[in-house]
Design brief:
single chain; mainly alpha; 2 domains; two-stranded antiparallel ribbon; two-stranded antiparallel sheet; about 70% helix; globular
């Protein structure tokens, strides 16, 4: 099997799992995305471990799962808003747990553990507010918004890659990512905006302005998310976050753009009442 075929089959399987997790059922959504969150945390803690740094992997996994489950339960109308405030004291358990580990470099251990929670678990937990509409009080599972966001993201990534490969001459951020080009960003951005327009027709729960705003956020902050992960991998002297997806690297490599874009999409929708 050639690398291209392996990469293509992996990509198709990955898309099927994500789409199925979004559209089938709230439980399917929770299982798929909580699972993806766990795998990303696992990759993150594995690549940052070393040279005296030993993040609290199990603590990070548990807090990430509790965070996702709490927001899922609240968005689904199962628990009251008061329970959300448990998130803050739970974070401080990382500091307490470090007392009992007897490891060196405690500040770095705590910092990396909390960084994984903020960088990965928090954005993925916020996805619950994109699939449950009418939160709080009149919660309804509505996967169209998140599905449309993935359509924009995948369109942008694919077209940016093709434009960069065919036309890329002007480097976007050569110090961090030598292969990324302005041509790729512009080409991908145009098609992302077109996909946003199509989403406004297909998924009419949001209007044209809302979808265009989401597309623009994905282009800008999705690009930053990709660059941030490239910066981290460069500082760690690694090529991929993992090897779980043949031809694609790790799970974190597939979601780096989305992780950075999610909080800004949530803010856009809340601030402008979309």
């Amino acid at each position: 099997m050639t690398d291209l075929v392996r990469r293509s089959l992996t990509g198709v399987a990955f898309v099927i799992v994500i789409v199925a997790g979004i559209i089938l059922h709230p439980i399917a959504f929770a299982l798929v995305f909580a699972g993806m969150q766990f795998l990303m945390l696992k990759e993150f803690y594995s690549i940052t471990q070393g040279e005296g740094i030993q993040p609290q992997k199990v603590t990070g996994y548990i807090i990430g799962l509790v965070l996702f489950a709490t927001l899922f339960s609240y968005a689904n109308g199962l628990v009251p808003m008061n329970l959300l405030f448990l998130i803050f004291p739970i974070l401080f358990l990382v500091f307490i747990a470090e007392l009992y580990r007897g490891k060196g470099n405690s500040i770095a251990n705590i910092a990396i553990t909390i960084m994984g929670i903020i960088y990965i678990a928090l954005p993925f937990s916020l996805l619950n507010f994109l699939v449950f509409r009418g939160v709080p009080g009149n919660s309804e599972f509505s996967p169209k918004l998140l599905l449309g966001i993935f359509f924009i993201l995948w369109t942008y990534d694919t077209i940016a890659y093709l434009f960069g490969m065919w036309l890329g001459k002007h480097r976007l951020f050569e110090r961090i990512s030598p292969k990324k080009s302005w041509e790729g960003v512009i080409g991908g951005g145009i098609f992302a905006m077109v996909t946003g327009i199509l989403n406004s027709v297909i998924f009419q729960s949001l209007g044209l302005v809302s979808w265009m705003g989401i597309a623009l956020i994905i282009v800008i902050f999705g690009t930053f998310g990709d660059l941030v992960e490239s910066l981290m991998k460069r500082s760690l002297n690694i090529k991929d976050s993992g090897a779980l997806l043949p031809g694609h690297g790790g799970i974190l490599d597939r979601f780096d753009s989305l992780l950075m874009a999610i909080p800004f999409i949530i803010a856009w929708l809340l601030i402008f009442n979309h």
